[in-house]
Write a structure and sequence with these properties.
Layout lengths: L18 E2 L19 E2 L4 E4 L2 E4 L8 H13 L14 E8 L4 E6 L4 E10 L6 E2 L4 E2 L4 E4 L7 E10 L2 E4 L3 E4 L4
Antiparallel strand pairs: 1-2, 3-4, 5-6, 6-10, 7-8, 7-9, 7-11, 11-12, 11-13
Length: about 180
């Protein structure tokens, strides 16, 4: 029986999507302590798309921004995240250090990438600028320099694979204002 039905009264939790409610001890009418009981995030998550089940590899302890990046890629470019794809996008793209004129970024490596291409632009601009150097697969970090203080920039990383390329989600980061 689920926690919410112990002793025919709510224990304070209900089963929600992506969570698992605590279970009452068998043959007892007592709610688990502490009350109200808490729910925990499931170990993994699968998403149903038409007749296909897609595992987006969510794990306990995943950061919310990483989960949102996986979901965004699944919606916008599923070929870059689905298991078995010949070119997988990087995940976990984030800015690590921000100054008045530089933004350092890092990401989780793609298992299919040969190397990476980092692109950036002012958020208000249309045209992307690529860093002049290709980033080797062994070092999934980059520093974008020569930026204007206090401006917001869009940043993305392309996984360059033997069978094409796949872009990451785009993140926005603002340089420090003087």
């Amino acid at each position: 029986m689920s926690c919410s039905k112990c002793k025919n009264k709510p224990c304070g939790c209900e089963d929600q999507g992506l969570t698992t409610p605590p279970v009452c001890a068998q043959d007892t009418f007592d709610c688990p302590a502490p009350e109200p009981c808490s729910e925990t995030f499931s170990d993994c998550c699968v998403i149903h798309i038409n007749d296909t089940i897609v595992d987006i590899n969510l794990q306990k302890g995943d950061r919310l921004c990483d989960i949102l990046q996986r979901l965004t890629l699944l919606i916008t470019n599923p070929g870059c995240i689905l298991p078995g794809s010949t070119c997988l996008s990087v995940l976990g793209l984030q800015s690590t250090t921000i100054t008045t004129t530089t933004i350092a970024i890092a990401w989780q490596p793609s298992t299919t990438a040969i190397n990476y291409l980092v692109e950036y632009k002012l958020s208000s601009a249309v045209t992307w600028t690529a860093l002049p150097a290709i980033v080797p697969v062994a070092n999934p970090t980059a520093v974008i320099g020569g930026l204007t203080p206090g401006e917001t920039y869009d940043i993305r990383v392309a996984s360059i694979c033997a069978a094409g390329s796949c872009y990451s989600v785009t993140i926005q980061t603002q340089t420090v204002l003087i």
